[in-house]
Design a protein that fits this description.
Length: 256
């Protein structure tokens, strides 16, 4: 059977994800580089470059980002972070962080996603009071013994460590993250992922199928938006309901 269109679609999807990753890291480097161009004297820029290299961003892309956003390239527009907050279906609190060089484009895109799934933007401060900005480190529990990781974490200023089925999660303050990350790397620990996140004080369970479907589709739309850097929320969806939603989405996907 001829599978050309399907194979090409998958390649396009992979390239789209890779393109967003590269673009996002360029913007993160841009924001950090505006403070000072030399990573040796700018911890934020050093960390941004370090993370970009971990996700295989080419050196040429990194160098262009530094030149472009330190205004060595006079045609470049400044990158700014804009954070949107609101309640999603089921009264789930959400924070969406964007990095953009075109505020009008980003506002239009984010409003379109909000409105499409039945909720409008709320005013600033409506949910941010229940979130705290933290760095989160994820480690593979099948690769390392939890007690060993726990002992190492106790030697740092990390705030919390939790063991889940698919990962070990370490939470640190923004100020302490670089030291915690460096210490664990020096001990030979590899990470699944590290990210700056908004951690909620409490959770809200979505029990309705329609609300769960809208929420999942909303997250998909944000994942596809090039300006969206981070989506944080306080939802809980049971494994059974999530399976139902995923099966419905997969069944109703257009196939070539």
């Amino acid at each position: 059977m001829w599978r050309g269109p399907v194979v090409q679609a998958r390649k396009d999807a992979v390239n789209q994800v890779k393109g967003k990753v590269f673009s996002l890291h360029a913007k993160l480097i841009a924001v950090a580089a505006t403070k000072w161009w030399n990573p040796d004297d700018n911890p934020a820029l050093f960390a941004a470059i370090h993370k970009a290299k971990k996700e295989w961003v080419p050196n040429d892309n990194i160098e262009r980002a530094i030149k472009k956003w330190t205004w060595e390239d006079k045609t470049a527009a400044a990158i700014q972070e804009i954070i949107y907050e609101w309640y999603a279906p089921g009264w789930v609190a959400m924070m969406v962080s964007t990095l953009t060089d075109n505020k009008n484009r980003t506002v239009s895109s984010i409003r379109h996603i909000f409105t499409k799934y039945g909720w409008n933007l709320w005013e600033s401060g409506v949910v941010s009071w229940m979130f705290h900005r933290k760095w989160v480190i994820f480690i593979d529990p099948n690769k390392y013994d939890y007690e060993k990781i726990e002992e190492l974490v106790f030697e740092t200023n990390a705030e919390d460590i939790q063991k889940e089925e698919d990962y070990i999660k370490i939470t640190t303050s923004v100020d302490d993250f670089n030291d915690v990350e460096k210490y664990l790397e020096e001990k030979g620990i590899d990470f699944i992922e590290t990210k700056l996140d908004f951690i909620p004080d409490n959770d809200v369970e979505i029990t309705d199928f329609d609300n769960a479907l809208k929420f999942k589709k909303m997250i998909e739309a944000f994942d596809e938006d090039e300006d969206v850097a981070l989506v944080s929320s306080n939802e809980i969806i049971s494994a059974e309901l999530e399976k139902q939603v995923d099966e419905f989405i997969e069944k109703n996907k257009f196939r070539t």
